[in-house]
Recover the amino acids of this structure.
């Protein structure tokens, strides 16, 4: 009995110390360099978003936030590295829709729900249905009609198996029943080039990537994949509006920390990130690229990831996509 | 005339004090990271990107571009000095460059690499200024079918690389093709030969293999040599190329520039392909092909010009169409967007200071690189006078840091160790790693494009001969095959006859 | 005959090629083969592996005929010590930090050489490690902890 009391006391003491340390840590946080893991190689949208946030966080936190690119296996390697890191607030992770997709695609060594604590959702980049100008269609409905008229003759260019471009295309096919082939490329860039060259007829690609080419007329935008029309293309209907009810495919970015990171640190980070997202500079940067700032609190972001995971999990299962 | 005015305008932009300064910083940093293995222009540009947010876009782009082509300049240095390829594109330079260094001709090799790169840089600046839009349109005509036929031509030409035994060289090409298969299959997403390692999902890095096989393999082989002999001859010849060297190099530099420019314009090719192609062409055209691999200066001049031309012409699709021809170009496009400039054809008219300023700065940057690098040659060559026992641990350290930095991955270090061991084993068995590298570089593109072309054509192989550009490559491939097979077949007949006679006498 | 084989260059080259080819064909059996006009992921590795086995057989027979010997030597010491140093570097980078990993790699590789002077190698290790930290960590800003825990 005495023993139990003693151990109970010890436990309370430990908790109290931990709490104090936690609070003290949050007050003085950060005391050293913070590492932001980007689970993709330099150059992609995750990288650009991540580096931008790292630069702005450095200014606001007063300590260096360094970017650590750990690319590979569709983001799994970097995410695993982050999951294994100390939950002390000095390791953060940038994620995108790939995080939700990977859950259904790979056998992961981390639990995608429990291994991380959400900090904030940063923004959304819808996809766009872009068509080579030589293809005689001017709306989503006409494209579907053409696909039905010539089954198997049209192709979508995709950025690789399991990419959000690929899943967006599969979702389009399953909602419309159109017989359109999906041709895989190594990344979004080569896929886009093939559409601009007219070798594949269309792509459900990232609006960020296609934006300049839509403006210059190298491709036609038939619809965007967001729930609302894109601010950068107000004249282009959403794909759902244009006749594919229920279609929504967005890429998005967010920040996570390993689970167990002290609450005060997460709140502090959310506060700073929220301020960054509200600045006109950030709004302009996202807007120019065809993306939008889409702020979510830690409490909103967690459930959002779960919903996205379930949505893509269903598409992956229906289309029988395997990556292993 | 308008073009002339544009160029003058470009120079007036590029010659402003601020832009000159950023150009210099760019090429300086580029040379430095080019010398270091693994740390490539992409990672460096990514790291420096945030610093450029507060700089005017023109100056920032000039600096970032300087890093990129500066790295191509610097990449040859360690390839020549210690068989350590600084960048993917300089793998080929190891072959003859390093042999020249061992013969005390490192100075000449470094100088010809710099001169060739400068020539290529100059020509490509003019190409971009005069012909960028039509060249970019030409590049768009390439679909998977064209890429496949082009790569097939490269693969068939690989026989040229054979040094000694033809069958073993071809077998090593196949080994390279198989190594290229490691990783996720683009068409199906299945991970092949990955043995459950996520680290292998994106394949093996070309620099990891090259550093393992060439640099670590070379150290192992030097340490193993039982005869006490110097790795580098102590008598270092003149630092600069002789008149004879220059005469020999002129053709390769011109041809290398052409080859590099061609591949540079095509977005679907990797930089090593340009330098490999140039090397194969020079070896085929060379009066005495057996000199290649033994320190032929043509084997440095051609590929080095080619990789610089390739790097610079990668700007053509990016500037005129807003199309990223490589990962680094994608990053530069991202940078443009961050600066609030929408990339694409309108850049030329909307932002003439950016377009023409950047082009003019490339030529200025190339002059700076030449001025910067030629005096450094003396210093580099003096480095080789260090005792080898001090030199090789340093090579090991820089290789390891460089390889680690690519993905921050220890796994790549283990791979590098494995390929080091394979490097010495292949040497012992007299299996040249050079054809293996070519197979490795071409393999994934051959398979990917072949399967994609057939998918798009619904299994109809006639796409390869009904599309005119593809047909041209197919015809060229057949011609190469005939030209190369003729003497080989004759020799084979001769050899078979000789060996059967031996069999009789035994 | 057996003794002759031990040093036979092309015989072993053939064995190496055959093994590589055979292993790749075996592994590729797990991937769908498809057909020539619609290739699956197993098509290329199977066909290439098969070709490699044929090449390997040819090279092996060639070796048996010519009997050429292996002429390049291999120091067992270097062959063990250098890869081990790299292995240590990889492990220490993850668990101990940049400085210990680098020091062990440099010191370890140096000991693979024929001449090994303790003081000289120690100096070399110090200078190279310092130089690398200056260039890579401070100059290029690579985000690796110098020593874990600090």
């Amino acid at each position: 009995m005495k023993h139990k009391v003693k151990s109970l006391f010890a436990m309370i003491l430990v908790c109290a110390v931990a709490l104090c340390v936690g609070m003290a840590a949050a007050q003085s946080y950060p005391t050293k360099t913070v590492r932001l893991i980007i689970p993709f190689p330099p150059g992609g949208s995750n990288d650009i978003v991540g580096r931008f946030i790292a630069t702005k966080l450095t200014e606001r936190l007063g300590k260096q936030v360094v970017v650590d690119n750990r690319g590979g296996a569709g983001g799994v390697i970097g995410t695993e590295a982050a999951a294994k890191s100390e939950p002390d607030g000095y390791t953060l992770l940038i994620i995108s829709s790939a995080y939700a997709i990977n859950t259904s695609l790979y056998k992961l060594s981390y639990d995608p729900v429990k291994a991380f604590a959400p900090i904030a959702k940063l923004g959304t980049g819808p996809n766009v249905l872009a068509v080579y100008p030589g293809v005689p269609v001017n709306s989503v409905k006409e494209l579907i009609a053409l696909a039905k008229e010539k089954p198997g003759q049209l192709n979508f260019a995709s950025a690789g198996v399991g990419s959000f471009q690929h899943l967006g295309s599969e979702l389009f096919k399953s909602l419309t029943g159109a017989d359109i082939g999906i041709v895989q490329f190594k990344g979004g860039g080569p896929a886009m080039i093939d559409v601009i060259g007219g070798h594949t007829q269309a792509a459900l690609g990232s609006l960020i990537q296609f934006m300049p080419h839509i403006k210059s007329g190298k491709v036609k935008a038939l619809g965007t994949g967001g729930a609302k029309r894109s601010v950068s293309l107000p004249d282009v209907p959403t794909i759902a509006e244009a006749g594919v009810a229920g279609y929504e495919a967005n890429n998005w970015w967010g920040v996570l920390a390993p689970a167990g990171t002290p609450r005060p640190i997460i709140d502090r980070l959310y506060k700073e990130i929220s301020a960054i997202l509200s600045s006109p500079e950030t709004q302009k940067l996202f807007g120019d690229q065809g993306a939008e700032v889409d702020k979510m609190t830690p409490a909103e972001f967690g459930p959002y990831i779960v919903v996205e995971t379930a949505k893509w999990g269903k598409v992956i299962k229906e289309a029988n996509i395997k990556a292993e | 005339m308008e073009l002339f005015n544009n160029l003058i305008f470009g120079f007036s932009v590029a010659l402003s004090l601020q832009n000159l300064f950023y150009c210099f910083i760019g090429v300086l940093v580029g040379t430095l990271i080019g010398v270091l293995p693994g740390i490539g222009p992409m990672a460096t540009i990514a790291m420096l990107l945030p610093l450029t947010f507060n700089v005017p876009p023109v100056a920032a782009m000039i600096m970032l571009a300087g890093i990129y082509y500066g790295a191509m300049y610097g990449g040859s240095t360690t390839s020549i000095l210690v068989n350590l390829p600084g960048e993917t594109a300089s793998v080929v330079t190891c072959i003859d460059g390093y042999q020249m260094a061992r013969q005390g001709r490192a100075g000449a090799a470094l100088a010809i690499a710099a001169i060739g790169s400068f020539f290529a840089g100059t020509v490509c600046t003019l190409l971009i200024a005069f012909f960028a839009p039509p060249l970019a349109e030409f590049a768009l005509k390439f679909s998977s079918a064209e890429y496949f036929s082009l790569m097939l031509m490269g693969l068939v030409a690989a026989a040229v690389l054979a040094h000694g035994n033809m069958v073993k060289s071809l077998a090593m090409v196949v080994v390279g093709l198989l190594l290229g298969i490691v990783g996720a299959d683009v068409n199906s997403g299945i991970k092949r030969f990955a043995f459950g390692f996520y680290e292998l999902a994106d394949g093996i890095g070309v620099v990891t293999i090259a550093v393992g096989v060439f640099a670590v393999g070379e150290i192992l082989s030097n340490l193993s040599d039982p005869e006490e002999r110097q790795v580098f001859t102590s008598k270092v010849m003149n630092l600069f190329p002789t008149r004879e060297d220059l005469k020999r190099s002129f053709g390769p530099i011109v041809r290398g520039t052409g080859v590099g420019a061609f591949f540079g314009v095509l977005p679907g090719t990797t930089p090593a392909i340009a330098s490999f192609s140039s090397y194969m062409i020079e070896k085929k055209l060379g009066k005495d092909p057996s000199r290649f691999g033994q320190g032929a200066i043509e084997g440095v001049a051609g590929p080095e010009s080619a990789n610089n031309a390739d790097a610079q012409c990668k700007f053509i699709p990016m500037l005129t169409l807003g199309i990223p021809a490589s990962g680094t170009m994608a990053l530069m496009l991202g940078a443009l967007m961050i600066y609030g400039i929408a990339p694409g054809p309108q850049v030329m008219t909307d932002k003439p200071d950016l377009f023409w300023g950047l082009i003019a700065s490339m030529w200025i940057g190339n002059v700076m690189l030449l001025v910067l690098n030629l005096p450094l040659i003396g210093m580099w060559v003096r480095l080789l006078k260090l005792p080898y026992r001090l030199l090789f641990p340093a090579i090991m350290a820089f290789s390891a840091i460089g390889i680690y930095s690519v993905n921050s991955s220890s796994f790549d270090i283990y791979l590098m160790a494995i390929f080091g061991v394979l490097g010495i084993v292949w040497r012992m068995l007299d299996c040249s790693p050079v054809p293996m590298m070519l197979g490795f570089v071409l393999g994934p593109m051959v398979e990917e494009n072949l399967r994609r072309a057939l998918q798009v054509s619904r299994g109809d192989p006639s796409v390869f001969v009904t599309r005119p550009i593809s047909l041209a490559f197919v015809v060229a491939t057949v011609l190469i095959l005939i030209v190369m097979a003729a003497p080989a077949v004759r020799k084979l007949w001769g050899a078979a006859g000789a060996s059967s006679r031996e069999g009789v006498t035994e | 005959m057996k003794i002759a084989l031990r040093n036979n260059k092309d015989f072993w080259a053939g064995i190496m090629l055959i093994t590589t080819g055979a292993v790749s064909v075996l592994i590729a059996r797990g991937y769908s083969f498809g057909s020539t006009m619609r290739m699956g992921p197993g098509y290329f590795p199977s066909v290439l592996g098969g070709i490699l086995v044929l090449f390997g057989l040819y090279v092996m027979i060639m070796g048996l005929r010519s009997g050429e010997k292996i002429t390049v030597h291999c120091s067992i010491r270097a062959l063990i010590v250098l890869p081990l140093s790299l292995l240590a570097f990889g492990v220490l980078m993850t668990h101990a930090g940049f400085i210990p990993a680098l020091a062990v790699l440099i010191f370890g590789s140096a000991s693979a050489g024929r001449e090994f002077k303790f003081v000289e190698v120690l100096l070399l290790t110090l200078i190279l490690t310092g130089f690398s930290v200056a260039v890579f960590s401070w100059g290029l800003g690579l985000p690796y902890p110098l020593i874990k825990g600090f």
Remarks:
- The mean pLDDT of chain B is 86.
- Chain B has one domain: 2-229+238-505.
- The two ends of chain B are 78 Å apart (CA to CA).
